[in-house]
């Protein structure tokens, strides 16, 4: 428990730095670009994140699962690196085809298509799940925290420069791309210092030969991560396609400010998962303690949003984005529910039930996305936030039932 909370603390330290700096660059971008141009920037940025997220694998979980001894660690790392190479190649092809066929649907003007493709390639090259796994395996969450902070530091500094030099969508995309590459470089450098990577072990076949369930585990964890991207990033893109660029920008502001607890949930999942793999006998007790902490934290944050939500929106983004207030509070509620479910999900994956976890998330998310056009029509941008709230509520309830049956 102590080690899990310490590692969560390191992750949240980086998240805290990122949260503060994200307010800085979010305030600069929204004020300089305005709702329409900021919405176009959000669409370009979100497209890149979707491609990178759908194509990448959660290789860090494979490294922790099969890397507890030196030989297994080298094999799992080589498998992870090979998957990263395959993800980059596939992502470049998918991005080119998607922009060629659907750029008009995505509301991207001609002058933004090549910059969007270039930013997508930068996001693919910045895939860093493998070095993340090596650092977590060795409990070097401190080094991972330093690397994570790089993204927001570069974005904030770049946004300040852009403010004085050239406040355009292209400039912000350039800064965001540099931030992605810089973060990946720092991650790989720190991981190599922690444990050198054996290039001779890079292979897509060696680990599956030794562990026949490897592909099932990798696909299960990666598909689940893709669902997380669909529920957040894809939703932003759909809001833009269905409601216009300005609406996408408003929803992005709401999600940026309202889903702070989601980042805590993700940090908790990443910190607790290694402990559940190492100590299966005490896993249930650890999960129970963390769930109780999560409930108290989630309630406190939602109450804070109810009291200060509109003021926060006006201070950070300006009165033009005040429509993001109610969606922000709804998303804070959804993130609170996800925080409670994070340790339940970690327990399910640690017991090898990655596919069950994927199905548990896939069904309610699919229903939510299909209902998005009607919810947008009835409730505006708040309807998109309700998709996330409903999905989180159903998913975490199902996770609780599954883990309870598993323990029984």
TrEMBL record:
Residue ranges crossing the lipid bilayer per the database entry: 12-32, 38-57, 78-102, 114-134, 235-254, 293-315, 321-342, 354-372, 378-402
Record key words, sorted: Cell membrane, Membrane, Transmembrane, Transmembrane helix
Bilayer topology annotation: Multi-pass membrane protein
Gene Ontology cellular component terms for the protein in this record: plasma membrane
Pfam family, one: Polysacc_synt
Subcellular location as annotated: Cell membrane
Keyword Transmembrane helix included in the entry's annotation: yes
Name used for this protein in its record: Polysaccharide biosynthesis protein
Annotated organism of origin: Aurantiacibacter luteus
